[in-house]
Amino acid sequence: MAMTPLRFFWRTKQTAVFALIICSLTALGCAVDQAHLDRWQKTEEGPRRLSAVVLFEKYPVELRVRAAQSLIEMKPRKGQRVGLDRLVHGSLVCDPTFVTAGGPEEPCRRVQLAAETRAQILQQLVPIIITELGKPLPKPTQGGQATPDPSFKYKDAAYMMMTYDKQEIITNQALKKQLKSALTKWAMADFERKLNDRSQAYGMEQLLRLIGSESVAGLPALMTKENRNLSKIASLVAKLGTKTAKDAAGRKLVTIMKYVSSAKWRKDKEPGLKEANRKAKIEPTKKQFEAQMADYQKEAGERVFVSMKKVGGSAVVKYCLGVASDEKQSTKRRRQSLAAIEGHIDNKSKSQIDTLLNIAKSDAPNLVLDQAFRRVRELPRDKTAPQLYDLFKTKKWKLRRAAAATILAMSTAKHIDEFIDNLSRLARKNFNLPEVLTYGALLGALKDGDAKKALLKHTNKGNVRARLTALSYYFEYGTKKDLKALAAFERAGQRIPKCDEDGECDWSCVVGSGKKRVTKDVKTLGDFVKYCIVPKAASNVPKDEKKKKRVGKKTDSKTGKAMSK
Questions:
Q1: Residue 235: in which H helix or E strand, if any?
Q2: Helical H runs in 445-481?
Q3: Most exposed of 90, 171, 392, 408 (fewest Cβ within 10 Å)?
Q4: Element at 520 (helix H, strand E)
Q5: Which residues have a Cβ under 8 Å from the Cβ of 274 and sit 6 or more positions away?
Q6: Closest CA to 90 of 126, 49, 44
Q7: Could you tell me the CA-to-CA distances from 486 to 144, 416, 441, 454 in Å, in that order?
Q8: Residues 525, 494: contact at Cβ < 8 Å?
């Protein structure tokens, strides 16, 4: 039947509309050029159209690569990097979650890239990304406003491609190596700005973790006295760097610390501090200004110590041990220097170990000694115990106690005989009650053996120092069950060691309670057991004794009335 003009017009119109829909939504059957790609970056359906160009075999590889680049160049929409997500999860691969969320019009539902085709596209796309990463930052606008860094989106695209966990997108290892190298160079160029720029989809630490240790090899060179991100750089080197990188960072930090501690630092910072005072409308006196400057310098040094603690290294350890050994330095600074090398002493370095032990054996303030002994505890027992035992000869019982506690922190029950033997032979000066009670508590807590059994033989033999130490176990761990056995020692007549007048010794214990509390002098081993050990053991609750559950009627939490069982 011949078609009327009206019906012919209607059929032609339908065909044209259908073709237009196919052309606009999928770009099939239409000529696509760069103008289309540029326009689609801004339209609502643009991401899908660009994705279709990347996916469909109809288009030449060069055009598909330009479509992929257009997805990278696409501006964020409502804060979301839709172009990057579509490129990686909806074009280069068709991620099931992405496809499901895309609905029936998702191009990936109709076609997916073959591995060979993806490789062809990436063979051209990756070099474009590398080129963009190497471009310098655009100059600021005429008004001095910073121009957004266009390289961020290319870095983010590379990161997404390299971290997709369901399959390897860039299979060409040589190409991947080139991209990693370009990302490393990109990161090192203007590192501080990029480190702190929050407009990136992925932070600098995420990128450097991806690349690995080679990514931070260049960071030590950026650690200068002007750098405001020393702590962040130190963290990155500590987490990702090799020993070589950490050593290099440590050397730079020592150089910076020497500058921060110098008169030149004060001279350089004076103008800035004065300007800050002027803006704050503060007019300090000369003495007040000096105090301000001193506090400022201390804070600056403390920040460097924090970075040193992160990276360690032989240069850092040597410098910090030097500061800790210097009696002219303040107690706080000496203590901070020892805290900064926590975990960094080389247990194969005799010079480091000897220097640390010399500090521990010195007349340094208690805060310094405390840190020194903390560091000693991190070292192998066999390399430190002999020198620590030598400290038992000191007349300063607090120092001896610190050395003993350090030894016991590194010991097990099998070392009990060794410990008591050295203590009984060497601790001849100002042996004091507080230290002996400390030893009992620490000895009883030793693992890998029966501490109580090992100590028992020392309660009946040996000099008074050995017996006091062994019996002090019951002060912490004794119970009513031990009172019968302890009663046998109450008549022991061995005299308590004498102390110097300036020895700060106190051999006395308080017995009784309330108004009946009486202080008893301890003159013999028997007094020690009778006045110190027995009362305490009688009051100790055995650890394995279970608390009796209270039995009674339950009450309603709302009414407070008794509830029937």
A1: helix 230-240
A2: 451-460, 464-471, 473-477
A3: 171
A4: strand 518-521
A5: 289
A6: 49
A7: 86, 21, 17, 17
A8: yes
What lies within 8 Å, CB to CB, of 435 at 6+ separation is: 397, 398, 400, 401, 404
**How do the domains of the chain map onto residue ranges?**
23-137+149-211, 380-542
Which two tokens mark 74? 């696409």
Among 164, 341, 149, which Cα is nearest to 254's? 341
Q: How far apart are CA 82 and CA 44, in angstroms?
A: 11
Q: How many CB atoms lie within 10 A of CB 487?
A: 12
Bridge partner list, 90: 94
- Amino acid, single-letter form, for residue 370: D
Closest Cα to residue 163, out of 151, 180, 142? 180
CA distances from 52 to 18, 71, 533 (A): 18, 11, 86
Identify the DSSP state of 532: I
Q: What is the pLDDT along the chain (565 residues), one digit of tens a residue?
A: 444 444 433 444 333 333 433 454 444 445 888 999 999 999 999 999 999 999 999 999 999 999 999 999 999 888 888 999 999 999 999 999 999 998 888 999 999 999 999 999 999 999 999 999 999 888 777 666 767 889 999 999 999 999 999 999 999 999 999 999 999 999 999 999 999 888 889 999 999 999 999 999 999 999 999 999 999 999 999 999 999 999 999 999 999 999 999 999 999 999 999 999 999 999 999 999 999 999 999 999 999 999 999 999 999 999 999 999 999 999 999 999 999 999 999 999 999 999 999 999 999 999 999 999 999 999 999 999 999 999 999 999 999 999 999 999 999 999 999 999 999 999 999 999 999 999 999 999 999 999 999 999 999 989 999 999 999 999 999 999 999 999 999 999 999 999 998 888 999 999 988 888 999 999 999 999 999 999 999 999 887 664 544 444 454 544 444 454 3
CB-side exposure of 488: number of CA atoms within 13 Å? 6
H/E stretch holding 28: none
Global pTM reads 0.81
Q: How far apart are CA 174 and CA 511, in angstroms?
A: 81
Give residues with Cβ within 8 angstroms of 475, minimum separation 6: 437, 440, 441, 532, 533, 536, 537
Q: Which two tokens stand for residue 228?
A: 């405001």
- Degrees, nearest 5: CA angle 153-112-87: 5
Output the six-digit token pair for 378. 């991190």
CA angle at 91 for the pair 110 and 117, rounded to the nearest 5°: 85
Q: Using alpha carbons, list the distances in angstroms from residue 516 to 362, 532, 540.
A: 44, 16, 20
Extract the tokens encoding 260: 């921060």
406 CB-near residues (< 8 Å, 6+ apart): 360, 373, 376, 377, 384, 388
